[in-house]
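Reader question, answered in our methods column.
A reader sent in the components of a multi-part assembly and asked whether the whole thing could be modeled at once rather than chain by chain. We filled in our standard form and ran it. Here is what they sent:
COMPLEX SIZE: three components
ENTRIES:
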Amino acid sequence: MSLLVDKWRPKTLDELAYHEDLSERLRALAQTDFPHTLFYGPSGAGKKTRIMCTLKELFGPGVDKLRIEQRTFLTPSKRKIEINVVQSNYHIELTPSDAGNWDRSVVQEVLKDIAQTQQVDLNAKKRFKVVIINEADLLSRDAQSALRRTMEKFTANLRVILCANSTSRIIGPIRSRCLLLRVGAPSEAEICKVLAYAAKKERLSLPEHVATLLARISQGNLRRALLSLEALHTQDPTFKTVSASHSLLTGTKQSASDLDSVPRPDWEKYAGRAAEKILGEQTPERLLEVRGMLYELLVHCIPAPLIISTISKRLMDRVDEEIKADVVYWAAFYEHRLRLGSKPIFHLEAFCARIMSVYKQHLLGIGFD
Amino acid sequence: MPSPPPKRVKKELKPLSSRPQFAISSFAPKLPSSSMPPPPVPSTSSKGKGKAKQVEVLDLTEDEVEEQDPEALWVDRFAPSTRDELGVHPKKVNDVAGWLDEAYNPRLSKYRRLLVMSGPSGAAKTATLKILADELDIDILEYRNGSNFTFASDDSRDSMVEQFTSFLARAGMAPALELGPDPSLPPPPSSSSSSSSAPLPPSTRSKRLILLEDLPNTSHYPTKLALRSALQQYLASPRVTCPLVVIVSEALARPGVGLDAESTSGEGRRGESVDARSVCGIDVLQAPGCREISFNPIAVTIMKKALTKILDRVYASKSSGGLLPTSARPAVGTLEIIIAHSNGDIRSALMSLQFLASNPELAAATGATLLGAGKETGKGKKRKSDGEVKGAASKAQVKKLLQYVTARESSLFIFHALGKVLYSKRWGESADDDKKDLDRQGIQQEQEIDRLPKHLRKEWTRKPSKVNPDVLFAEAPIDSDVFLSYMHHNYTAFTNDIDECLGIVEGMSTADGLMRLEGEDWLQRVSLTSQYSFNTAVRSTLLHLPSPVPRRKQVLRKSALWEKMRETRANEEGIEEMYRKKDGIALVPPFEFEAGEEDGGGWRGGGGSQRSRRSLTTELVPYVGVIRQKGTKGALSFFTELATFPPVPSSHYQATITGETLGEKDVDEDEDLAVVKEEPEDEEMAEAEAEVLKLEEEEEAVGELLWDPEDDIEDD
Amino acid sequence: MAPSSTTQKVDAFAMMRQAAAGKKPSAAAEASPPKASGSGSSSKAANSGGPAVAPMFKPKGSGLGAGPKHVADVENQPWVEKYRPKNLEEVSAQDHTVQVLKKTLGNSNLPHMLFYGPPGTGKTSTILALCKQLFGPELFRSRVLELNASDERGISVVRDKIKNFAKTTVTTNHDPNYPAPPFKIIILDEADSMTQDAQSALRRIMESHSRITRFCLICNYVTRIIEPITSRCSKFRFKPLDVSSTELRLKEICLKENVDCPDDALRALIKTSDGDLRRAITYLQSASRLHSATTPPTPLTAISVQEIGGVVPDGVMAELAKALGVESGAEDVEMGEPSGRTVGAFETVQRAVEKVVREGYSATQVLTQLHDLLILDPLVSPRAKAKIALTLGETDKCLTDGADEELQLLNACAKIRKAVSEAA
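And here is the structure of the entire assembly that came back:
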């Protein structure tokens, strides 16, 4: 009972449905001595799928034999941290940022281990092993410079593949040592194509407008598109509930109910409702109510920055042109604050209070500036 | 027990201060200053012992007391020596006694291995144990670690715990007689009550217990873990021969300090107060062999009785052996102030009392005046006395002095501090209040404020505030981020519109932004940043609250923030758990399952890659919750739970602040908030005297409420 | 520190000689471990100190120094290392500095030095070339210690490693072909990331060991070096490379490596690397790798160079600029959509930003390029430019702190748009 998104995931470079030129490059690179690479691009664009396809191209089917392990590392202060590690005979994949402040120790230890063990498999197509580092942009600067050192030192039997959402937070020395490969989000048409492919494989009849709608709300995130297809299908096997004249498809002004009637995850709808609450009334009591909703979102493990950006997107859809810029300004402002502080609720609540205040002023016709 | 290898003995010859010491109580080391009043020490026997051992005399009689060195601390001189003298509720004493009794019952001893005595400092925990041990003829074997003052590296700290562990192993599992006293200790002094005189056998008593009072540094995470596992081992070990008693002096939560750099995963984020649970861990406390008996602070009435008794002895007339002239005796009023300030800590109260007495000038002043007051005035009764005038003059002095002496104890309770900020009282809001607050303690007096520049005046001019944030910061009982979370939880009820809310919550957001604990040196910065952030938040709250703050019978409640953070983490951990299961949302998405092979060591048909945490919580879990909604159970129902949200209330819903009301131990002396107060009965009271009495009354009220958590202090 | 005993000194020499001979301290050496940690006198401490020294040497030094350690992979060797100047003559562009330094070759006296300037301007190359010319390959290992300060920047490194190296005396036997002056050189790369404490410790060491040791500090920002140190050093400023010398160098490498690099690709390379020669060479190598991997190999293109450099293509930038109300250069007109759309201005910005973000371009890069685009645009008023600069700065700070890229970019763009439209 694996998920659609896993079931029909491409396994080789040939199966990839879009960014053909990139696949072509990867194929070419795999023939040579593969360089250190940095895959970057938005979430759900297919970075990891491409990485795994590339590995297959490099090493053949052997990479499919995976082991999942929990590795324990000892921090300098003798504290144990556990990191999930996925590995085959040819590669190892880890997410050092899971270790928080101790990512540096993790990077150093794993890479040293790998670098010092020669490829044991004599039939291996390459002499080196590959280390895949997820969420490389979340690594601390310390961990990044440790990584840089190791990359320099052990080029002979080690290749590093970094996976990141953006290069902004990757330090220059690493960027300059890696081949940068950008994986842009698929276009709407490309997502539709993939959705149609998956639907065909599953023998579902997926109306075109539904596919388009799913593609649109996925905002270029293919994983989401596929997941929402499956979710929608479970709830509504014939896709009757999605009308072809949905405002998201026709491009007319969106109403709150229209925004809610698309298959989104519950938390997004809930955040949307919080946004509506903000616009509905601007009083301390309402703020208190919104606080309750914010807490609810946090308890459901939704990252606070995502809460702000989801609420602000909804607000931007709903407020007048004049204060849209204000909304985005304050969203950016408090989202930044979130990164500085340790109590997300303060900043989320401050954001909501701010928007309430701005909106109230706007309604009163005073204008904010 | 295998006697320690020679090498070990050699090691123990290091300076006393640098290693743990253990000994039978009859030659017990001098108690650390943080423990309960140790029994009185005859001056003769303490000579020449250096910092090391002194004799505990557990059954001192009153006659002996009077022969004591007048310089000795009263805490030592007037320590309780019998059950009756203990200021502890008899039930507690019986509990402990019963436990001790059962611990030596061969049939029950398996279930009476570890006794955790918890309670605030000065609640007579140690004294209770010592007295009972003496009554029941039990030897106390105490563990002390002496190296608190060396800057221990990680290694040596760890080894301290190791030393403790090995001490436990040796002491607990060894038959009584083989355990000789530490060879490096000076020979035991003889004393009237100590039944032993030679190193071996150390004691004629057959029953022993191990006392652990000087806990290793449990704010150091590895140490704490080691301690817990040592305790667990002790509980589990089949060879244990004597019970272990751990005494935990509870302290208030100071999360900012306890916050470890490693806090992302652990208890660090939560307020790490020192209590039985945080020290021993829940596993230990719930073990069948463990029992926790928690002590309450000493009740006011009992403490008063005890102190009065002591005063009676001290200020007895010369003929009957009194140390000080009766005329210098502090008044009942003074005594009550001291008791109220002590928060139920009898040791602290006794210290204050002695200090007061040691100041002859003051003692004279108070003695002359307040003595009269104390002797002649019943509660609220009118009286006329010679000392009256003088009393008025010195009363302020006593008050002031007591502030210094007991400063630490008189810190504000969180409830009170919160009320101060959230009611944001200002001068000129109400004439009645102003009159009351004039020259009142804890109120910032009216002062000239520089006028704001013209362009700021309209928006920002406020009446002078009665709250001084700097003082508040110093007195606040908890760290600023806890304080802020409480303020955050409660502020909306005190505002009238959204802009006020904005100003306040914006201040908190700024403050939190300042408190980032990151980088190598965060520990050095934390004290400074917390001060800044406290001030930022408190001042902006004071500034933005309406003036006057509306009174709507607001009830202050406990912050939900910590609980929500805990829930969040629990859910995160729940998701983490799922990593290891194969319910279709594993860490690595398997592509093809080959029938029958799923249960093999590895994932077949793969090429999978790790899912990021973010995608897990925001995409996979929410969708999988929907996709697998039908017939879910076990792990998946957890996902469904995580994926779905409660319905949003209709737009007419009026939110209110929820949560446990603040109250327990969190008493306020501000009449506006909660405390029900009786007006002095007599209207004709002289003004100066009225104030003295009012003070007494107030403190009395506080005191009584303090020890009675059941009291509903929320009533307005 | 207490002076080491005689035997320990001998050990240190042994180690140096071995190193000079191009061998790593072998098992034999470990039996009588080299005294490297300085403080510990037990054999255990020395043992752990020994191997720990090795990583302290930057690997790139190994290519220049005595024995090549793991350059077996010549094919794969970064061109940056391969084409590092072998002597001062070969150093690109920094004529003034090179001139001064050449003089020191003759008179065997050298001051403490501080090299500063933007990355990729040849600071490390210059000092390595100088050292090589001073000591020759034989003595290089024993006379030059290269430390990367950001590696281990704690005070303990300064105390132990540097101090230990600084206090060993110099040997006299040397290759007569090199001047080999009687001192050692310690190169501290990235010195500006050393902590203040480490820097002050360094200062004292500089004083007490100046008889036989010269320091060369390398940093990007001279202001981050404490005053007492800068005043003890001769300062050399390294300027960003000019276009012609970068071009010259790149062409030379293309020739040697057989890379087909047309002029437009070369121009893109120089523009993308922005005066940083190391970056230019790295990009060149990556690009050539990509293009030679295809069959048959294709000549480099400007697009692939930009892609490798993570640069946002001009077309995308022009479109974004247009959404912000700035019509840049005429050549991109065909990229734009017909104007006069009905959606609000804010939404236009929103769509444009969304598009850029979805393509995966990094927000910092977009901002940098927006800066280049807008600040030079003659049609944008100075006032608007000032506001834009402010916005860009603030946004950059937020991004550095890890804020959400899309929100920040959208906010910056909305503000820029406002600034531009207000001034118009």
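What stands out: Residues 57 and 65 of chain C are 11 Å apart (CA to CA). Chain C touches chain A through 59 residues (CB under 8 Å).
Send us your own complexes using the same form.
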